[in-house]
């Protein structure tokens, strides 16, 4: 199972490097509708979507997973403030930095300081969301 994870991670890393998605300028160019718009990220997104759609159709026909014991339960379909807030924070961070979480981790290999700052902020957010909520009243 670890070998499959390593192979999958290596394929992902190679894909984002080859497509240029580890360069924030590529992402920011995609978000620049009024200036030097770069639609190449759209091609990467559509390609990923097509692969995902085909894969899910194949997986839906399986009785059991090939590399596990059970399929994970379906994701929640509830749209609440926490989901919308998290999506907004993700979008603002993506737009300001030009980094998406996966490519940012791959970018750490390049030694670019911005990648380290982004990944540190991302890790802090991931840990913060797991902290218990504090009540404003004394118990």
Describe the structure.
The protein is an all-alpha fold. The termini are far apart. The radius of gyration is 18 Å and the shape is globular. The chain has 6 helices and no strands. It has one domain.
Sum up the structure in keywords:
139 residues; mainly alpha; 6 helices; 63% helix; 0% strand; globular; disordered C terminus
Largest sheet: none
Radius of gyration equals 18 Å
> Please, what is the average pLDDT?
85
> What proportion strand?
under 5%
Q: Layout of helices and strands, plus pairs?
A:
Elements: H1 2-19, H2 24-31, H3 40-60, H4 81-97, H5 101-107, H6 113-129
Helix pairs in contact: 2-4, 5-6
Concise description?
By secondary structure, the protein is an all-alpha fold. It has helices spanning 2-19, 24-31, 40-60, 81-97, 101-107, 113-129.
């Amino acid at each position: 199972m670890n070998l499959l994870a390593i192979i999958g991670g290596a394929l992902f890393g190679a894909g984002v490097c080859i497509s240029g998605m580890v360069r924030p300028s590529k992402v920011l160019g995609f978000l620049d509708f009024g200036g030097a718009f770069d639609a190449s990220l759209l091609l990467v997104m559509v390609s990923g979507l097509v692969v995902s759609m085909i894969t899910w159709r194949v997986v839906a026909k399986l009785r059991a997973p090939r590399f596990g014991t059970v399929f994970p339960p379906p994701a929640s379909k509830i749209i609440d403030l926490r989901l919308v807030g998290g999506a907004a924070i993700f979008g603002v961070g993506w737009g300001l930095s030009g980094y998406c979480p996966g490519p940012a981790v791959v970018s750490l290999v390049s030694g670019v300081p911005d990648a380290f700052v982004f990944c540190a902020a991302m890790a802090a957010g991931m840990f913060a969301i797991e902290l218990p909520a504090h009540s404003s009243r004394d118990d």
